[in-house]
Amino acid sequence: MADALEKLTAGGWHHAVLWVLADNSHARGFYERGGWAPDGEARDEFIGPALVHQVRYARSLQKAFNR
């Protein structure tokens, strides 16, 4: 994840978002430890035949990678 965030920052991006399955507490904890936080957006989408609830996480790229 650190490599991807550095590349986004080097590309001029200042903010990043990602979607995670709402029920996946392991993944949510991973992202939260990495500085991501839910931003209040949610959606329901099909993954194959299953309808899943997702929440959007966001984080600033400027804080962590300014040198």
Automatic annotation (TrEMBL):
Q: What InterPro entries does its record include?
A: Acyl_CoA_acyltransferase
**Which superkingdom is the protein from?**
Bacteria
The protein here is known as N-acetyltransferase domain-containing protein
Query: What organism is listed for this UniProt entry?
Result: Phytohabitans suffuscus
Q: What is the lineage of its organism?
A: Bacteria, Bacillati, Actinomycetota, Actinomycetes, Micromonosporales
